[in-house]
Design goal:
single chain; 207 residues; alpha/beta; TIM Barrel; eight-stranded mixed barrel; two-stranded antiparallel sheet; 11 strands
């Protein structure tokens, strides 16, 4: 199976003047943008960057940064802001929250179940050390229905036992991890490999 390096994930932290046309010309295929955090926070660049990225011909995705608290309310907030259509890739970002409580597994179950019920498919599940610490070698059949997006800045992907392999791998945050770190038109950013070819990526993206 081939591996392609054509996806980035970004947020308002990546600045106000992203050139998505230049990024696409450099080979970028898909963008996954932060939409929401917790039950009320909204990324102020989401809507603007969505319009620009789609006009440039890029695939568009949205992620929710999880916090401790009601998983259904977070999912409702996420879907309201993300406004997904059938071609919008959706992801739960399950990592430690450094400004308050982190989401637990019960809240994650509620989140992904609500997204599936409302959108017709399970979201991707992005995580690194947190899910490895919580699950260890145990299985979580519900989360296993989500495709897995590994966060690990190193040369080798270590996948939790709950998934047979990674679907996407965030191998750098634009600073740590293997190169390349940057994308023309965006600069240094989170870059993500996909475990497959472009046709398989588009199939995943569009459900």
């Amino acid at each position: 199976m081939s591996i392609i390096n054509v996806v980035v994930d970004i947020s308002h932290h990546n600045g106000p003047n992203i050139d998505f046309v230049k990024a696409k010309a450099s080979g970028l295929v898909g963008v996954i943008h932060k939409a929401t955090q917790g039950q009320s926070n909204v990324d102020k660049k989401y809507a603007l960057n969505r319009t620009a990225a789609l006009e440039a011909g890029l695939l568009w995705g949205a992620y929710h940064f999880a916090e401790g608290g009601d998983g259904i309310k977070q999912a409702e907030h996420f879907l309201k802001v993300a406004e997904p259509d059938k071609d919008t890739l959706l992801v739960l970002d399950f990592e430690p929250n450094r400004t308050g409580p982190s989401m637990n597994l019960t809240e994650a179950h509620a989140f992904v179940t609500h997204v599936q019920q409302e959108n017709g498919r399970f979201p991707g599940f992005y995580s690194g050390n947190l899910i490895k610490e919580l699950l260890g070698s145990k299985q979580d059949p519900l989360l296993a229905k989500c495709w897995f997006w590994l966060a690990q800045y190193g040369p080798t992907a270590v996948v939790p036992a709950n998934w047979p392999t990674w679907t996407m791998w965030q191998y750098t945050d634009g600073n740590l991890g293997p190169t390349p770190h940057d994308v023309p038109g965006i600069g240094d950013c989170d870059r993500d490999k996909f475990n497959g070819d472009q046709a398989q990526l588009e199939k995943l993206w569009k459900g």
